[in-house]
Amino acid sequence: MKVYLVMLVFMWVKSHPDENLSAAQYIQKHGYPFEAHTYPTEDGYLLTAHRIPHGTATNHSRQVALLVHGMGGGGENFIFTGPTNSLAFYLADRGYDVWLFNARGTTASRKHSTLDPDKDSGKFWDFSWHEMGVYDLPATIEYIQQKTGVESVFYVGHSQGTTVLLVMLSWIPQMNPKIRVAALLAPTVFLHDTSSPLLMILARLFPLLQKLLEQANWYELPVPKNPNLLNSIMKIFCTPQFFQSFCIDFLGIIAGGVLRRFNKTQLPVIVQYAPQALSLKQPAHYAQSVISGEFKPFDHGPKRNFQLFNSPKPQYYNLSNCKAPMALFYSPDDPISNIRMVDKFAVKLPNVVLKHQVAVEGWNHLDYIMAFDLKEVVNEPLYEVFKGFE
């Protein structure tokens, strides 16, 4: 009887050696250098990027790589599958000075020069991914240029990280020369072509949900004023091996399908870094895109649109302005970024250097950051693209 009790307790409390580590501790534990850099945006947000200046075998780097996360994530998205599999470590070991972007509102960048994210929530969280593309990315790239002296960066974006790049390059065309080449993982643009019924339903319901939450002063997702609460809850329920399958199925619902290649051993690490806080307007902006079929700034309504855009409706993002070299990575089994979507917007981009269809059955939207075989499926073909532009 005692043996069974011990086994039950072990099943419940068995921990991961990398649990409860900050990003800095996690990176340094695996032998990599770490730096944190804080800098302002033009509209007053204070962002913090995490830097891995070089790999474990050398103290030099040849090029700079900027890695930009998706919605609900942070820079940790590119490290949390471990040192042998994660893209940030992979690039650092191949001579890249790796910078991990953290968008406004995330754990590392939940700061503003004058606004408090809790006391001034209505103003602090009044942004979508448009502002990330117009303010956050340019500020980050220009800061990296000042610190490193490089003229251009190698760019990797996943999901929303692809959206904000296209926003920046279309809205501020002079930023194009500062992108050496961009690898877009699961490009997220024309979402009305989604093959996910759940996404379509949520997009239709979201305007009503947005109004209800705004009336309750709920501008931050998932939990206002307590951005780590959901992580703590998920850690309690997802760390025990008995419940891990349920947690993975839940993540699969978010990704639009079954996660067949999920790195289960890293689940306790992943849930401590994700999800991270986001504004209500980020998913609301995507919902507008799903419904309208258009790629354009957030539609605030005629009155504010006139104030911001001098027009009752916002203008379209001009994708023909996005002249930086682009490599597109997509999967037919990703309902959020499928072949039809990629084909539709790829013809609007003037400099697509590669369209790479992931040759793995069942590859899903979150597999680009969570799969156990990232090194072979994503990192290696991406690195081949980068080598051609060094």
Description:
- This protein has 390 residues and is of the alpha/beta class.
- The protein has helices at 2-13, 23-29, 87-92, 121-124, 129-148, 160-171, 197-215, 229-238, 241-255, 267-273, 281-292, 302-309, 339-346, 367-370, 374-387; strands at residues 35-40, 46-52, 63-68, 96-100, 153-158, 179-185, 220-221, 278-279, 326-330, 352-357.
- The protein has an eight-stranded mixed sheet, sandwiched between helices. It has a two-stranded antiparallel ribbon with strand order 7-8.
- α13 (339-346) links the parallel β9 and β10.
Question: Summed up, what is this model?
Answer:
The chain is an alpha/beta fold and 390 residues long.
> How does the major sheet shape up?
8 strands, mixed
| Order of strands, widest sheet | 1-2-4-3-5-6-9-10
Give, in order, the helices and strands: HHEEEHEHHEHEHEHHHEHHEHEHH
Uncertain segments:
1-13
The fraction of residues in strands falls at: 5-15%
| Helix percent band | 40-55%
Question: What is the CA-based Rg, rounded?
Answer: 20 Å
Which descriptors apply to this entry?
single chain; 390 residues; alpha/beta; two-stranded antiparallel ribbon; 41% helix; globular; disordered N terminus
Topology of this protein?
Elements: H1 2-13, H2 23-29, E1 35-40, E2 46-52, E3 63-68, H3 87-92, E4 96-100, H4 121-124, H5 129-148, E5 153-158, H6 160-171, E6 179-185, H7 197-215, E7 220-221, H8 229-238, H9 241-255, H10 267-273, E8 278-279, H11 281-292, H12 302-309, E9 326-330, H13 339-346, E10 352-357, H14 367-370, H15 374-387
Parallel strand pairs: 3-4, 3-5, 5-6, 6-9, 9-10
Antiparallel strand pairs: 1-2, 2-4, 7-8
